[in-house]
Design goal:
Strand order of the largest sheet: 5-10-3-13-14-4-15
Number of strands: 15
Number of domains: 2
CATH architecture of the largest domain: 3-Layer(aba) Sandwich
Structural class: alpha/beta
Distance between the termini: 41 Å
Amino acid sequence: MQRRISRRTVLRGMGALMALPMLEAMQPQSVFGAAAADKPAVRMAFLAIPNGVNVEAFTPTKEGTDWELPTTLQPLEKFRQDINVFSGLTLNGGRALGDGAGDHARSAASFLTGAHPVKTAGADIKNGQSIDQATAERIGHLTRFASLELGIERSAQAGNCDSGYSCAYSSNIAWRNETSPLAKEIDPRSVFDRLFGVEERVEMAKNRAKRDKYKKSVLDFVLEDAKSLHNSLGISDQRKLDEYLYAVREVEQRLVRVEKLGTSKDDESPNYPRPAGVPRDFGEHVRLMFDLMVLAFQTDQTRIISFMYANEGSNRSYAPVEVTEGHHELSHHGRNQEKLDKIARIDKYHITEFAYLLEKLASVQENGGRLLDNCMVMIGSGLGDGDRHNHDNLPIVLAGRGGGTIATGRHIKYPQETPLTNLYVSMAQRLGAEMESFSDSNGTLPGLEG
């Protein structure tokens, strides 16, 4: 019989610290000696798409289970039975409410807060606490990191980015409290070092330099610990551990390749701010971040993650789908069909990357099921149509079954003006957070259980 080990067991060595996925050996023993099934933790993530979408290409025409994937959502065909598409949800806090222009900034600021941000480009910003942070306050102590805030473009904390609204509003969706946005991490290497290194930044830098000097992987430093653990596990757990270590190694090797490419003087990257150290290729950048999200969830280092594809109002072009114009520029389409078609291509690209994340989550086995089954991953935008700047009938997709508490495979149409924050209350409760209301919610979101 294999020995039992703690869920908090980690591999250590030379400043490296590697959390482990859930193994059978971590399960508690029943009175009969067999492993008693321990209910897996539920995780949640929020993915923000900037500038709204092509609503017609995004929204299914039929409700219930008898619905067809619209053009934009076709990359999710494999996961049709793992998702719900919602219509009718609203962010009232994103509306002008007498403040005039600035819908892009408001859509990002209200996306996870439901709040109406104070219109200012100065230091007196005021918004609301975001649902990820409200949930982290309640359950964040259960994991190494209460939450992770990730993205592709750097956060700003000052400046005028949208009609008198601070750049802090348009470049952050996570808010610790009403005056403190949480800047997102955009460098995959820094995220990797946080997940697999000591927490002190000085020590982290020293150990990374040591690995670089001797051309060692983080796995090389924990190898002795890993071998010892491997020999004490059953065959099933040995296979799971091997698969996990391989996944970590693969991500680390990709980071090295990206960094080598980043030293090239032939810089043909698009014209947008790109701090040194992050991948030049947008798709590789996104996928590295998604791989790290999966590793963070798999090892239960956090149960709460937020991610921004780009800052709200971003004018990034999308060469992979042959869109050379800026995204924000195209979002003001004026019903021009050519522009609408290009927006749909951008939207589909975002969903294709989302499908990649779901594929990775589904590939990880956990307690006889899939990691995806124990997740709730929401993707959407705080704007509906980028041209209309509307904040009702938002494009929202929720993937995963929340630990078996969510019936999936449906298009659910809610009454107009149903607060998006009702969904957030429902999600937070499934993580074990005691929360009856949040922001402008007026209850939970009905129908999730089927």
